[in-house]
Amino acid sequence: GAFYGGQREDMQLLCMEYARRGYVAATMSYRLGWDCDPNSGLLICFFCGSQADKLKVAAYRSVQDTRAALRFVASQAGNYGIDPEHVFVGGTSAGSVAAIHAAFLDQEQADIFCPDCVPAVGALDSGVNEIQAEYTIQGVINNCGAVMNLDIFEAGLPMPMISFHDDGDCIVPAGYGYALGCLN
After folding, report:
1. Would the pLDDT of 184 be above 70?
2. Which is nearest to 102 in space by CA: 76, 128, 77?
3. Of all helices (H) and strands (E), which one includes residue 91?
4. Between β-strands 87-92 and 137-143, what pairing exists: parallel, antiparallel or unpaired?
5. Rounded distance between C-alpha atoms, residue 25 and residue 81, angstroms
């Protein structure tokens, strides 16, 4: 989705496979949209080139929503047999961007990347729900995602992360470069 399309049901089969292997698995939704025509497909750079700052806010909102979902899951740990100290996060494409940043991004780094985000939508851990519950992310599964800035890893990787990508991805480059590079 590029933060404008997709739904949590898209990950249902993957979650079922994790459950078959003995893991508690859940999928979540995050707010979509950033004033880009959702029908632009591979022409997204042509139709949405003037919307780069709105894309940053959309990515930031997805991290807010992911962290809110993790707090909710942690608050329900007893009901679902979850150990909130052993959480893995992952996603595909934009969902993977959200997962990586939920695990590694702090507010100071977020403010540098997107100075307009806090005034627009609030701090990373606010604005979505008021649930106060602790969780510890132990690992990240990255499928075609990217990071906003390599500085989020400046202290090293405090947890394992496995990444999968393909050379044909025209939205998130496989080696290095900007996601939707034409917008930067």
Report:
1. no
2. 128
3. strand 87-92
4. parallel
5. 11
Q: Tell me, letter by letter, the H, E, C secondary structure of 98-165.
A: HHHHHHHCCHHHHHHHCCCHHHHHCCCCCCCCCCCCCCCEEEEEEECCCCCCHHHHCCCCCCCEEEEC
Mean predicted confidence (pLDDT) in 141-149: 84
Residue 49, pLDDT above cutoff 80: no
Q: What is the largest CA-CA distance in the chain?
A: 48
Whole-number Å distance between alpha carbons of 8 and 83: 22
Rounded to whole angstroms, the Cα distance separating 15 from 181 reads: 31
Q: How far apart are CA 65 and CA 35, in angstroms?
A: 19
